């Protein structure tokens, strides 16, 4: 048939295309190069700020530098096409290598073969020839010793003697492939998250409810299929004298759906609320309404000083006929302590001036206000009436897949590096006064550790 | 506080252990090496006492936490973990003299902490989780495994031209065992970190500098392991990779906190 011959001729013309590609991806050199190159690109991404505003880059690297960064997508490196391409190549390499190696490895490890020739046993990396006295069969003794140290033993009794093969830790040989499989699962989970997941932020004032949040990056408003209410927000401080260090932040949240209360939970940092695939994390807060009481000490010319507590925003009299108002304040400006900006109308004629007042006296001397020598702050008290809580919102259906991937990776790495595949062969024959035992040991990794282990087996055999 | 006294004493003992290791190395004496091992073990024991004391004392001052939450505590813990892992490996594999190259890492790390603020501070809200303990222990075991591999790598390069093959093979094997241990624990450290981040911040991976550098470290040692087992790299080249790997590890552990900003900048 013409069709078939055509496809045959194509195959013959390019016999090696798939093979070449396969060979390219099955190369261990490619693996090492990709690992190093991905590591290098990742480094670059940590030295250049990611996803910042253009002004930040212009300030740091200049206009030209910013243009270069934009062209090379260095400001969003981990999502850039070339980084994704590297990851894709890495995945291909990992999958092809595993597919290429695994079947032959499986075949070679499936069965444990006996070694019939004593020379083969004595040629193993570790070997010993022992002469054991006694009537009890040395083969059974050896079998017991091996089984006690966790070996799986295959034994063949024949007229020429007892042949034995044993191994343990075979799973370690599959460890790398289990790890690779786990990495693939994790990346699939990450891809599910990338396509179906969403992440954002919402601020809810105490007592209010929302049914939306803003997506990170795009700031798009995204609807929630339910309402979240912030019933209360509070900060708990450590019980310490110096400074007020926050111990934890709590938001009392309630979920409403179709005018019905579904659930209530007080979330804190490290303990989020979950509902319908969305998770709400305590991320931030903001004082929304507050009062500030500032206590001033006013030194008058001619009369004794007086202390006066005023509330931010409200008008008061510094002295008879002199109106003032706190128009701005800072609880602690550049670590100098509290600062208040006073707007003073010296003569009540509407022409006011603004003056900073500090915790220490002195500055005010440069400002001339009739009858007043100086003003300083003696106490500063902010009372927050209501807060708005800031919540991180996330929906990521890929998470369970990623978690499964993590478990598989952990197991794979522990198998491949924490367990060692060991094999011991033996031939036990009657000889001399009792038994002649040829013992040969082999290990895939960690020869140093095996040497001791092998000697232990030998000495236990001799002791018993 | 008492804990610092033990830590300071450990520093002195480590230094003495290093001197004894050096003498044992120069004179190729196994007896002296054994004395050095016991001295280092004494230092390790002092540090373990200091560590648990600090844990206890943190509760006494009302700031109870697993004591590895700021730079001082992290470095002290790091020095302790390196010592313990090194002692286990030295004892288990009957190694000699490598302490000459591992002990300096320990006492320099610990010595550096005397310049740091060692007050017990309460935990910021983000760190108040049991994940902190698991994450910190696994990550630090990883770092420490790589530190031991680094010491062994240096020792290998020093000995390459002089020592007999059997010793070099033993050192090469030590590098492998230490890297293998470090790789397992770093993997668990990264994964526990990711799981915690997912639970606490809603994202298991956000390319935060610390996360990224831990991945870089993982990739570098992954390359080392693949080069060793699939491309047959041994000896000299593995030793060099163990040294480069530790430089990357150190940047991940300290460089990120000193030079870059991110979620781990608590210290």
Structure description:
The complex is a heterodimer of chains A (464) and B (267). Chain A is an alpha+beta fold. Chain A folds into four domains: 17-104; 111-169 and 420-463, Sirohaem synthase, central domain (Double Stranded RNA Binding Domain), CATH 3.30.160.110; 194-287 and 387-410, no CATH class; 289-385, no CATH class. Chain A has ten helices and 18 strands. In chain A, strands 4, 5, 6, 7, 8, 9, 10, 11 and 16 form a nine-stranded antiparallel sheet that branches. A five-stranded antiparallel sheet of chain A has the order 1-18-17-3-2. Chain A has a four-stranded antiparallel sheet with strand order 12-13-14-15, with no helix packed on it. In chain A, strand 17 and strand 18 (434-443) form a beta hairpin. Residues 1-11 of chain A have low confidence and may be disordered. Chain B has 267 residues and is mainly alpha-helical. Chain B folds into two domains: 1-123; 127-267, no CATH class. Chain B has eight helices and no strands. Chain B has helices at residues 2-27, 30-60, 71-92, 99-113, 130-159, 165-201, 209-230, 236-259. In chain B, helix 2 packs antiparallel against helix 3 (71-92). Chain B is flat, with a radius of gyration of 19 Å. Classes of the chains: A alpha+beta (464), B mainly alpha (267). At the A-B interface, helix 3, strand 7, strand 10, strand 16 and helix 9 of A face helix 6 and helix 7 of B.
Question: Which helices and strands, and how do they pair?
Answer:
The complex is a heterodimer of chains A (464) and B (267).
Chain A: H1 2-13, H2 17-25, H3 28-47, H4 54-71, H5 81-110, H6 118-122, E1 126-132, H7 138-148, E2 152-158, E3 161-168, H8 171-196, E4 198-205, E5 209-215, E6 221-237, E7 246-257, E8 260-268, E9 273-275, E10 278-300, E11 306-311, E12 315-319, E13 322-330, E14 339-345, E15 353-358, E16 372-395, H9 399-418, E17 422-431, E18 434-443, H10 447-463
Antiparallel strand pairs in A: 1-18, 2-3, 3-17, 4-5, 4-16, 5-6, 6-7, 7-8, 9-10, 10-11, 10-16, 12-13, 13-14, 14-15, 17-18
Chain B: H1 2-27, H2 30-60, H3 71-92, H4 99-113, H5 130-159, H6 165-201, H7 209-230, H8 236-259
Helix pairs in contact in B: 1-2, 1-4, 2-3, 3-4, 3-5, 4-5, 5-6, 5-8, 6-7, 7-8
């Amino acid at each position: 048939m013409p069709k078939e011959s055509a496809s045959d001729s194509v195959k013959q013309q390019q016999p090696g295309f798939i093979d070449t590609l396969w060979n390219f991806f099955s190369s261990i050199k490619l693996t090492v190069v990709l690992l190093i190159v991905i590591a290098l690109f990742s480094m670059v991404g940590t030295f250049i700020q990611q996803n910042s505003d253009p002004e930040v880059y212009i300030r740091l690297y200049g206009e030209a530098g910013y243009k270069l960064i934009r062209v090379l997508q260095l400001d969003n490196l981990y999502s850039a096409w070339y980084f994704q391409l590297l990851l894709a190549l890495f995945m291909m390499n990992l999958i092809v290598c595993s597919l290429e190696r695994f079947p032959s490895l499986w075949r070679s490890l499936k069965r444990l073969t006996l070694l019939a020739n004593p020379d083969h046993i004595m040629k193993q990396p570790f070997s010993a020839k022992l002469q054991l006295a006694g009537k009890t069969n040395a083969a059974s003794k050896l079998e017991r010793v091996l089984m006690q140290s966790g070996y799986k033993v295959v034994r063949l009794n024949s007229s020429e003697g007892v042949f034995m093969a044993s191994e343990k830790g075979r799973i370690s040989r599959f460890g790398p492939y289990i790890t690779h499989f786990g990495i693939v699962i994790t990346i699939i989970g990450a891809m599910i998250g990338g396509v179906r997941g969403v992440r954002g932020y919402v601020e809810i004032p105490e007592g209010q409810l929302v049914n939306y949040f803003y997506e990170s990056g795009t700031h798009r408003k995204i609807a929630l299929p339910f309402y979240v209410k912030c019933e209360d927000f509070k900060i708990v401080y450590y019980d310490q004298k110096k400074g007020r260090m926050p111990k934890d932040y709590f938001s009392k949240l309630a979920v409403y759906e179709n005018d019905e209360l579904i659930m209530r939970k007080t979330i804190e940092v490290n303990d989020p609320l979950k509902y319908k695939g969305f998770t709400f994390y305590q991320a931030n807060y903001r004082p929304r309404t507050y009062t500030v009481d500032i206590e001033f000490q006013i030194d008058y010319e001619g009369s004794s000083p007086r202390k006066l507590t005023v509330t931010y925003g409200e008008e008061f009299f510094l002295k008879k006929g002199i109106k003032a108002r706190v128009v701005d304040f800072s609880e602690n400006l550049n670590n100098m302590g509290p600062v208040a900006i006073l707007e003073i109308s010296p003569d009540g004629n509407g022409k006011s001036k603004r003056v900073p007042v500090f915790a220490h006296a002195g500055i005010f001397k440069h400002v001339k206000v009739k009858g007043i020598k100086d003003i300083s702050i003696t106490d500063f008290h902010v009372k927050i009436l209501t807060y708005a809580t800031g919540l991180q919102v996330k929906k990521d259906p890929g998470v369970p897949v990623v978690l499964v991937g993590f478990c598989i990776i952990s197991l794979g790495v522990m198998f491949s590096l924490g367990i060692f595949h060991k094999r011991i062969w033996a031939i036990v024959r009657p000889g001399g006064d009792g038994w002649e035992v040829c013992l040969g040991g082999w290990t895939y990794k960690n020869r140093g550790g095996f040497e001791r282990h092998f000697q232990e087996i030998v000495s236990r055999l001799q002791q018993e | 506080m008492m804990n610092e006294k033990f830590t300071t004493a450990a520093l002195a003992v480590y230094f003495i252990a290093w001197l004894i290791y050096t003498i044992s190395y120069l004179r190729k004496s196994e007896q002296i090496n054994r004395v050095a091992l016991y001295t280092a073990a004494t230092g390790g024991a002092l540090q373990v006492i200091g560590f648990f004391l600090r844990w206890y004392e943190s509760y006494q001052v009302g700031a109870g936490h697993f004591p590895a939450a700021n730079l001082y505590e992290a470095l002290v813990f790091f020095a302790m973990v390196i010592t313990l892992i090194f002692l286990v490996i030295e004892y288990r594999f009957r190694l000699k003299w490598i302490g000459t190259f591992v002990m300096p890492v320990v006492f320099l790390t610990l010595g550096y902490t005397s310049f740091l603020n060692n007050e017990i501070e309460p935990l910021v809200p983000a760190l108040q989780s049991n994940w902190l303990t698991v994450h910190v222990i696994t990550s630090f075991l990883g770092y420490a495994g790589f530190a031991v591999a680094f010491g062994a790598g240096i020792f290998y390069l020093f000995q390459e031209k002089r020592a007999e093959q059997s010793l070099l093979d033993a050192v090469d094997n030590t590098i492998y065992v230490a890297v293998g241990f470090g790789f397992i624990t770093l993997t668990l450290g990264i994964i526990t970190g990711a799981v915690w981040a997912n639970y606490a911040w809603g994202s298991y991976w956000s390319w935060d500098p610390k996360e990224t550098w831990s991945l870089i470290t993982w990739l570098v040692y992954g390359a080392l392991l693949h080069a060793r087992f699939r491309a047959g790299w041994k000896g000299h080249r593995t030793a060099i990779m163990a040294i480069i790997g530790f430089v990357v590890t150190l940047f991940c552990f300290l460089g990120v906190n000193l030079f870059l900003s991110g979620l781990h900048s608590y210290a």
